[in-house]
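INPUT
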Amino acid sequence: MLIFEQQDSARAQSLRLLVLFALAVAATVAGVHAALALSWWTLLWLPLHLPFPALFFSVNIGVTLLLILGGWWIEVSNFKQPGGAEQLARRLGAREARPDSNESEQRLCNIVDEVCIAARMPHPLVMVLPRKQAINAIAAGCDEADCVVAVTQGALDWLTRDELQGMVAHECSHIQEGDTRLNMELAGMVSGLELVWRFGDDVRDRGGPAWLVGSIVMAMGSFGWYAGRCLQAAVSRQREYLADARAVQWTRSRDGLGGVLRKAMTQQETLVTADDEPQWQTAMQHLLLVPEMAPGGRWLDAHPPLRERIHRIYGRFMPALPLKDPANTGQAVAL
Amino acid sequence: MTTTGWIVLALLAALAVWAISVFNGLVQRRNRIANAFGQIDVQLKRRYDLIPNLVDVAKRYLAHEADTLEAVTRARGAAVGAAATARDQPTNAQAVQALGAAEHELSGTLGRLMVVAEAYPELKADATMRSLSEELTSTENRVGFARQAYNDEVLSYNDAAMQFPGLVVARLLGFAQAAILQSTQSAAEREAPRVAF
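OUTPUT
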């Protein structure tokens, strides 16, 4: 079956990328030591051949590892506070859904319940982003007790029931597959690699022979930082494909999620997003269903292009779908 | 004991540990199948509970359609009774078949009610009716997804029980292949565990 093959391939790809990520971290650590050793050797080669200072190896490796792991730990512990997912969603402007007073939110809560049955997972907290007109959704949370699915008002207004189901299924896959957690760990590692670069910058600032040492550390740190960001984004793209395939598997429908992405394409083309709407922060991009910012560097994109995702879902290219008010077409009410 | 003796003993111990872990995995998967089946039952009950409310609201607008409403209530009563019988005697093929027929009848009368309701715009606009029909739509989806989840569990169990070398343990300890739900009729939902275990 194609959906299962796609899932296997996305899983295998992300595993490969994670191995590469670990190699990049190791290469950064080894690179700092090798470059420092080389410079020591070149500096002292002309007058006389001095042995390396005591603990040269341990200090190089230890300090670099301390920076990377320390940066990772600080970043991750920031995210891991209890209720962190809900707080994050609230910071983005989300509020809890009100199934008792609002028809479309009743529908949303029902859909989340349905998808959780299909996915055999516990219920996340359902939230709504009432000020956002773009079709979008976010998933956040690292464990079953604290996870959130938030949907924009635009998604509630423009999507049919089946499409909303596809969208929720995609987000639930991110939670169930632990993508939000994985992304948080990788982001932590990347900020650790960034710390290496910053440390180099600080050392270089002191001038004298420290300038050379700092430059070397900086060069290695920036290599690790950039490689880390590229690999983090590549992992994130694979997890998007995986979540798309999961959503199709759970809802047994291509047109659900497919319709969401095709409508999102229409929105991207016509740019219906109002200027006064609060924009997503760059750091939150990987949590979204569709990227909001104009595609910049492809290497650093957390999402594959919409066209490619639609192509994978349908097996062929499909045109964008016009936005229609589902209430007028009678699709929203099953009666 | 000789070295060979120790090696044989170690191999036997490893084999036993492996067999125990395979056995536990199979039991765990089989329990998950039972749990998934329970989920289907929960959703069917949810559907039965919704129907009286739906009929109550529809009554206010459909004074001239008393027959249709009565048919729904009757069919629901029959389905609830048949479900209880089938739950008590899951191995009784007749009870399961009776439930299938009752569920079929219930779906038919509900369908007729929906067709009739089309002609009454006030009923369709009624907030409670809209809310109830959304609940009913959701319940149909839940029943479908619960069946799907059941099938996914069966698939995972069958993969574990039918693939070599787990197959050896499964055969020796009598883990039979579980059946996947085929039909969209509720009868099959009740029938499944009878086939599976």
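end of record. Chain A touches chain B at residues 103, 106-107, 110-111, 113-115, 117-120, 161, 165, 250, 252, 333-335 (CB under 8 Å).
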